[in-house]
Write a structure and sequence with these properties.
The chain is α/β, with parallel strands linked by helices and 443 residues long. Helices cover 36% and strands 23% of the residues. The protein contains 13 helices and 19 strands. A six-stranded parallel sheet has the order 2-1-3-4-5-6, sandwiched between helices. A five-stranded mixed β-barrel has the order 15-16-17-19-18. It binds iron/sulfur cluster. Iron/sulfur cluster binds next to α5.
């Protein structure tokens, strides 16, 4: 086995797409400073954890990795361990003092300082950098990306909403947007370098605002779709109170803007939405859904749901179930409420729904959503859809996996095709999460 080299680094990435994009930024910064990324943790002299704090179990996962690293560090004194991202930003110095074998911690706004923190760590100096920089967008840093098919591109960072249950405003700070020109140039560069799809990222992309020109997200999306007509363009995450009719109209007009909108609702009860400080009611949410379906009848809409939020009654839980039946989402990310320390809910509301009730409500939501997804996916059987092949299917190398522009996963016999190809596939079968089919050219 190779002796771990002090300039080789390995990154474990946890959590959301924004964290995956940040790992690309961190890799670029470290490579520019002469460090080298490696694919095998055992070879690395530096191990970084890019952490997620969105829910308790996400933080527990980091804890498990840290225990392993603690053991490795006992055997290999020169090993440098750094924890990045949302966990240290959220738990701050208490995290650092609770983990004395961790050499440094760095919040999401401090990655430009990583090379100097690594140098200090190699001299045995522990450092924590958790300051917010409300102007930092890492503009000008060319992230290192995996593959050549789909790319994540943060267009804004932070969030000014303060939903009662959410840690993001604490872990990622206030909103700031990447200049429109920078985003458009980056997307054009991605297309020129062979990428087929780009996903514009933000905790709440709808509140995007170019600081100099004042352009909003609808302007940005329109400019990006014109700059890269051959690329599929996606974006996430939207907020129901901010999504505009102008934005939806542009998605309907521009062929390369994907007809998939992720619109977290969290609950079907207006009283609970009020307690969650979501800034909209059930009725306002349903009007936004009607507006989207008016302009894009076959739009795929997905959402996020929290079961068992503070004081949620059985009747309010049923309102969430009836909202699922009304909207018929393609898919949902579904969780039961877990208190995050320091959030508004933690400070002001009692977490009074018993865990077993939270779990049984979540189970009901999952079963209903799976049944709806199954029905919606079955409606595709017999149709021909355009699929961007992304990779070999997990099941067999003779099959490819890809996505429709409505973000539905499709598995089909590869024939003469390869990842990166746009393939017309006739759908022959469906589960609640995957479509199967045959490429029309092979029929
Ligand atoms: S919009 Fe609300 S839930 Fe989403 S990141 Fe911001 S505070 Fe969190």
């Amino acid at each position: 086995m190779l002796k771990p080299s002090s300039t080789l680094f390995f990154i474990h990435t946890f959590g959301c797409q924004m964290n995956q994009a940040d790992t690309g930024i961190v890799t670029s910064i470290l490579q520019d400073a002469g460090f080298e990324r490696c694919g095998d943790e055992a070879e690395a002299g530096i191990v970084l954890l890019n952490s997620c704090a969105v829910r308790e179990n996400a933080v527990d996962r980091i804890g498990n990795f840290l225990q392993q690293l603690k053991g490795r560090k006992r055997r290999q004194k020169a090993l440098v361990v750094g924890v990045l991202g949302c966990v240290p930003q959220f738990e701050r110095e208490s995290f650092f003092s609770a983990n004395p074998f961790v050499d440094f911690i760095a919040g999401p706004d401090t990655y430009r300082a990583l090379p100097s923190m690594l140098d200090a760590a190699m001299e045995g100096k522990r450092q924590s950098r958790l300051e917010y920089d409300h102007d930092e967008t890492y503009a000008g840093i060319d992230p290192v990306r995996e593959g050549r098919i789909g790319a994540f591109l943060p267009v804004m960072r932070g969030c000014n909403n303060h939903c009662a249950f959410c840690v993001v405003p604490v872990t990622r700070g206030r909103e700031r947007s990447v200049p429109l020109r920078t985003v458009v140039d980056e997307v054009a560069r991605l297309e020129a370098s062979g990428f087929r799809e780009v996903t514009l990222l933000g905790q709440n992309v709808n509140s995007y605002r170019d600081a100099s020109g004042g352009e909003d997200f609808a302007n940005l999306l329109n400019a990006v779709s014109q700059a890269a007509p051959g690329m599929r363009i996606r974006f996430t995450t939207s907020h129901p109170k901010d999504i505009s009719e102008e934005l939806v109209r542009i998605i309907a007009e521009r062929p390369n803007l994907c007809n998939h909108i992720h619109l977290p609702v969290q609950s079907g009860s207006s009283r609970i939405l009020g307690l969650m400080r979501r800034g909209h009611t059930r009725e306002e949410y349903l009007r936004k859904i009607d507006m989207i379906r008016h302009h894009i009848p076959d739009a795929a809409i997905t959402t996020d749901l929290i079961a068992g939020f503070c004081s949620e009654s059985d009747e309010e839980h049923r309102q969430t179930l009836s909202l699922l039946e009304t909207v018929r989402f393609d898919a949902s990310f579904m969780f039961y409420y877990s208190v995050r320390p320091g959030t508004w809910a933690d400070r002001n509301l009692a977490d009074d729904v018993p865990e077993e009730v939270k779990k049984s409500r979540l189970q009901e939501i999952i079963e209903l959503q799976n049944a709806i997804s199954q029905e919606r996916f079955r409606e595709e059987v017999g149709r021909t859809v355009e699929v961007l092949a992304e990779s070999e299917s997990r099941r067999s190398a003779s099959q490819l996996m890809g996505r429709t522009e409505t973000n539905r996963a499709v598995v089909f016999d590869r024939g003469r095709f390869a990842p990166g190809d746009l393939v017309r596939v006739r759908i022959s079968g469906a589960s609640s999460a995957t479509l199967v089919g045959v490429s029309v050219d092979e029929e």
